[in-house]
Each structure stands twice: as C-alpha cells, then as structure tokens.
Specification:
This protein is α+β, with helices and mostly antiparallel strands. The protein has helices at about 5-15, 25-35, 40-50, 55-65, 85, 90-100, 145-154, and strands at about 75-80, 115-120, 130-135, 135-140.
Length: about 150
Amino acid sequence: MLSTEARQRIEGLKGEYETLQSALIPALHLAQEDQGWISEETQMEVASLLTLTPQAVREVVTFYTMFHQRPVGKYVLQVCRNLSCCLHGGHRLQHRIEEKLGIREGETTQDGRFTLISVECLGSCGTAPVVMVNDRYHENVTPEALDRLLTELR
C-alpha cells in the first residue's frame, strides 16, 4: 500500500501531464521510491489512481529495467550484456561481481546490500563496458575499477 504522501504526489501528477498515460512513468518512479519496488498490488494501486487499466501499467513495468518487480538491495548493480559491453569485458565484470558478492544474476546478497541484474542495454556503447549502480552510470569499467567501486559501496 502506497503511503499517503506518495498517493498525493501521484494525484498531483494528473494536472502536470496532458494525458494520464503520460503521467504513468513518473507515477511509477514515485511508487518505487515509496515502496522500494513495484509489486502487483502497487501496480493495481497506480492504475486505479491514474484510471488506467492494470494491463497498461504492467506493460510499462515489465518493459523498463528501471522498475523492480521484486524487492532489491540498497545497491542495484546492472551490468550491460549487449555486444559492445561484452566485447569490452562486460561479461567478465558480471562474473567478478558474482564471485566477490557470492550471488548470481537476479539475486540479492544476504545482508540486503546488493542486487545483481543483467540488462540488455544501458545505452552507453561508446563507453563500454558499463555498470549502473542505482541511477548512476560507471563507464569504461575495468576489473580494478569494479573492485574499488564495490569496496566503496560496502
């Protein structure tokens, strides 16, 4: 269940956008900020607030990797698996994360600190390999830079 503040903020979006569909992505960001992830119940609640169908909300949640459909750790590590990143060692970075944190793709560390997600593309092919931590890009990541980053986040 969304907090009263989140519900009010989502209601406020209705007047800021030309259509209620246009307010959906900002509303989902607010819902995720409030809940930490977007459950089916939260999707239903957002649909109700924006008078959209649950399917319309689900389509957006399942399309974008920025929306989490299950609880995640404090730090969400997204590793790009597209061709440019793979050619520059992205798959090796993912394996390194798995080894260092003791988790596999899609899992969260037992302390709830890290979640590892492999994504199709982070849209930064010119600076491959790319690792995104929450909403921050880390580009041209070397194994040594990855080790430093993980140490800083602990």
